[in-house]
User: Which sequence fits this backbone?
């Protein structure tokens, strides 16, 4: 759904996992699931510290398959 | 006259496969009309024939867009399709998005006409105005399925007109949603004469129609980056519908118009509290089991303790963003932003389902 986020004009969009569970993956055990969530949040923090000129999508490495 | 061979795209719901629990259903097709396609076929009469119905789960489409579009193009070629019709999607965002993508792909790759139907505030309309495909037309519909008959008859009118290859006029003449571009045409009066006429009509309070409507699409100013994250106060916001037990504020799962803040001050994880999920637009099972998927509190607390950022605001902001009016959501966004500024919040993590 990052494309929709971009289209409506959100300036910093971070790619998540899936619509029903954007921050994490219930198929993973609790530990790796939390680690994945932490990576997505950390990526969002990086986005907040990054200057952009318009809608920009940030893609954490472990969410690339869900892009 | 040969009937135009039409492909109809519908989501899992209108194909009769299931509701939100089937939103991951992969793309498939059936010969002939299905669901709303049956009534559309009646309305088309001799001008077109729905030869194939392609159906796909809304989540599957948005998560496997390229794969789904590739299959659709393949089916269209195999079935000798001459026109594609999608929806109507009313105000369902993911469905509207899919309808626009399908029409765009078929129009650009195969040079065919595409006709879809959806509400003017469906987020799919943004894509339609972005692509500006000269062969794609979207009929306006009501917000919900109650306007099905009207939606289908408007779509059928455009389909029939395209099938007979007569010239399609302007949006105001033909009733489709403007795509945001102008076409050249011959007129009897020069621009100067038309402009003076318009001005005289305006001064005399007589009706007139502008030739260049002003785009109302809002550009959101870019917030500057946060310079010092270690002292920044951050808040979590979500549109995923996570609410306290019993949904005490009556947040609506559809067409919601309000927002709230809920306290997370004493929690290290959303699992330490009791929550429900009130969102009618996605399968809530995973969110119910672990609301950290929508309010990533456990991860934020760890990062806060490690001093990666300053402080987490003790409440999370919450609204449900399902088939809501864009105007209502813009108002909610503005109210939230005012509150966030007043609370001294430097940055926001907004999780959207």
Assistant:
């Amino acid at each position: 759904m990052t494309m929709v986020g971009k289209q409506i004009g959100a300036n910093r969009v971070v790619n998540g996992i899936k619509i029903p569970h954007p921050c994490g993956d219930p198929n993973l055990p609790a530990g790796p699931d939390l680690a994945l969530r932490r990576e997505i949040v950390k990526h969002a923090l990086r986005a907040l510290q990054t200057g952009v000129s318009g809608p920009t999508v940030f893609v954490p490495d472990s969410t690339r398959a869900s892009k | 006259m040969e009937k135009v061979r039409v492909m109809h795209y519908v989501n899992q719901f209108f194909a009769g496969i299931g509701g939100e629990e089937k939103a991951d259903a992969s793309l498939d097709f059936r010969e002939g009309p299905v669901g709303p396609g049956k009534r559309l076929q009646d309305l088309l009469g001799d001008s077109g024939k729905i030869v194939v119905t392609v159906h796909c789960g809304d989540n599957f489409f948005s998560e496997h867009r390229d794969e789904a579009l590739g299959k659709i193009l393949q089916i269209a070629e195999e079935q000798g399709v001459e026109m594609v019709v999608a929806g109507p999607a009313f105000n369902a965002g993911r469905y509207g998005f899919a309808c626009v993508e399908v029409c765009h792909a078929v129009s650009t790759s195969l040079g065919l006409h595409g006709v879809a139907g959806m509400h003017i505030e469906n987020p799919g309309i943004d894509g339609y105005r972005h692509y500006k495909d000269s062969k794609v037309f979207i009929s306006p519909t009501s917000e919900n399925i109650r306007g099905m008959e009207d939606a289908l008859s408007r779509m059928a009118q455009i389909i029939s007109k395209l099938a007979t290859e007569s010239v399609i006029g302007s949006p105001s003449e033909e009733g489709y949603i403007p795509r945001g571009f102008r076409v050249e045409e011959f007129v009897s009066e020069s621009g100067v004469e038309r402009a003076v006429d318009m001005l005289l009509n305006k001064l005399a309070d007589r009706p007139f129609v502008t030739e260049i409507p002003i785009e109302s699409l809002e550009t959101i100013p870019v917030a500057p980056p946060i310079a010092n994250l270690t002292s920044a106060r951050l808040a979590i916001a979500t549109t995923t519908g996570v609410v306290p037990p019993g949904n005490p504020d009556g947040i609506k799962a559809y067409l919601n118009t309000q927002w709230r803040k809920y306290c997370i001050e004493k929690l290290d994880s959303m699992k330490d509290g009791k929550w429900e999920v009130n969102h009618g637009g996605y399968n809530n099972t995973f969110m119910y089991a672990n609301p950290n998927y929508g309010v990533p509190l456990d991860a934020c607390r760890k990062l806060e303790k490690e001093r990666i950022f300053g402080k987490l605001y003790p409440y999370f902001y919450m609204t449900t963003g399902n088939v809501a009016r864009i105007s209502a959501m813009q108002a909610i966004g503005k109210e939230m932003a005012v509150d966030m500024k007043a609370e001294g919040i430097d940055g926001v993590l907004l999780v959207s389902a």
Chain A has one domain: 2-66.
